[in-house]
Amino acid sequence: MSKKEFKEIVFPPGFLWGAATSAHQVEGNNTNNHWWVWEQEGGHIRDGSVSGRACDHYNLYQQDFELVRELGHNVYRFSIEWSRIEPKEGKWSEKEIEHYRKVVEALLERKITPMVTLHHFTNPIWMQDKGGWLNPKSVDLFERYTRTVVESLGDLITFYNTINEPMMVAVMGYLLGLHPPCRTDLAEFFTAGKHLLMAHGKCYSAIHETVRDRGFKIKPQVGIVKQIPYFAPFNPHSEEDVKQAKLMDDIVNRWYLEGIQTGTVAPPFGSGEKLDYLENSWDFIGVNWYTRILANSTIKLEAEQKTLPQTVPEGAEITDMGWEVYPEGFYHSLMSVKKYKKPVYVTENGIATLNDEQRCRYIIRHLYQLHRAIHDGLDVRGYMYWSLMDNFEWAEGFAKRFGIIEVNYNTLERKPRPSAYLYRDIIKRNAVTEQQLQKYSVSP
Ligand code: BGC
Fold first, then answer.
1. What angle, rounded to 10 degrees, do the helices at 356-375 and 418-429 form?
2. Is domain 18-417 annotated with CATH 3.20.20.80?
């Protein structure tokens, strides 16, 4: 490819650039949630680890935010841990609320915009004991927790994510049984999905109402964070593969997004009931993106196989998670939300790899596709790499490293990888240069 075919890509003015984490994956000692309990049972986490003190971000956040500032980020996405705020049902911890106030203040002091996630996979033990997301009361319990957070911190926060990847919570926890509570029951999957949709809607209005009632001088922006994998047929000529890809897309992606847009809890999760508080309950859409999933109908799964009937093509580049690297799919998933006419933030996109050069290439190639979507009319306002630092990758443990900052788990030392400096350079210019595109052979 000749040099002149590459052209610098420039992002919109005021673009938010940063990285994301979640409480349980980085804070350490979140002893009061259902993941912690599950980890202690043993035998569940692939590399034999438990979250333990993780990155000790709970204590080291000031130092971490110094690094974030040095790396030029202007936004930081993180989650507030429900089990810390409400350790027992209806009992609120002033100490932990104060902690998160300090966290938010520490960001603001450094001119880093906080983007706060209210639920990122973990439930307080007491909430799980009451049936978790299967209990219809989970919706109101989540709403009450939301109100408490916003009453205490709402004068400082503009950006809220209600629930991180609700459909992954439902799929992994209730359909495939790979995350706690490890259920594999279709009816429970539908029930959990329905409550996770309703909880989003209630959370959305709770935030807006609380900010208004308290007279906070802030205009909150509230959105869902939805992982939108790109589903496609393994064999585009197979009717069955096409059908399966569409089914997966409908169930995992469309049902939830359409639910928010229309306010309807459509079958098979609900019975088509219309909920006023749910309709149009988003100010923006948070998109998490990792990979393409190719539906392969020739794969017959055994009952105990905990996966979807999918294939990674021969010879494809894969990540340490075994996921296909397919940047073009990012473009398609992004464009699939254009019809909702909402601002979009990429709330997660990243790669687990021990090869940082592969991470650099992944970032550049995905930013190229992101820019394509912007060029084609999608209103994208920010990008957050997953993750700021290596962390506890759920059922995979600590072996999978997603960070642009490397963490030494013995000494807790942080060391930005070369990708962190490449990213800093992009942020500084608000652009990816021709040379960078050329180096990673991103075709125009
Ligand atoms: C989650 C993160 C997770 C990442 C990589 C997303 O599903 O929100 O918590 O670490 O993907 O698996």
1. 20
2. yes
Q: 232 alpha carbon to ligand 1 midpoint, in Å?
A: 21
Closest residue by CA, ligand 1 atom 9: 22
Tell me which residue of 281, 125, 88, 97 sits closest to 203, measured CA to CA. 281
**pLDDT tens by residue, 134-189:** 999 999 999 999 999 999 999 999 999 999 999 999 999 999 999 999 999 999 99
Mean pLDDT along residues 27-54:
97
Task: Give the integer Cα–Cα distance in Å for 344 and 338.
Answer: 9
Neighbours of 272 (CB within 10 A): 8
Say how far apart CA 243 and CA 231 lie, in whole Å: 11
Residues whose CB is less than 8 angstroms from the CB of residue 167 and which lie 6 or more positions away in sequence, other chains included: 193, 196, 226, 227, 251, 252, 253, 255, 256
* Domain locations in the chain as residue ranges: 18-417
Per-residue confidence at 309, pLDDT binned at 50, 70, 90? confident
**Mapping DSSP to helix (H, G, I), strand (E, B) and coil, where does residue 421 land?**
helix
The residue-averaged pLDDT of 111-139 equals: 98
Active site residue 240: no
From the list 27, 165, 188, 324, the catalytic residue is 165
Cα(173)–Cα(150) distance, rounded to whole angstroms? Answer: 28
State the Cα–Cα distance between residues 302 and 271, nearest whole angstrom: 30
β-pair partners for 287: 226, 346
CA distance 40 to 34: 10
Cβ(232)–Cβ(244) below 8 Å: no
CA of 271 to the centre of ligand 1 (A): 30
